[in-house]
Amino acid sequence: MNTVAPADPAQSAGSAHPLAHRRPLGDRTFQILALVAGLLVLVILILIAVSTAQQSTSWFTTAGASGIFSIDWDPANNHFGAMSFVFGTVITSVIAIAIAVPVSVAIALLLTDVVSRRWSQPIVYVIDLLAVVPSVVWGLWGILVLVPWLQNSIYGHIGNVLNGVPVLGNLFGPPVSGAAFFTAGVILAIMITPIITSLSREVIATVPAIDKEGAYALGATRWEMIRGAVWPHSQGGVLGAVLIGLGRAMGETIAAALVIGSSATITSHLLAPGYSIPAVIANQFGEASGVFRSALIGMGLFLFAITIIVNLVARGIVERSARRMRGA
Question: Is the pLDDT of residue 1 over 50?
Answer without folding.
Answer: no
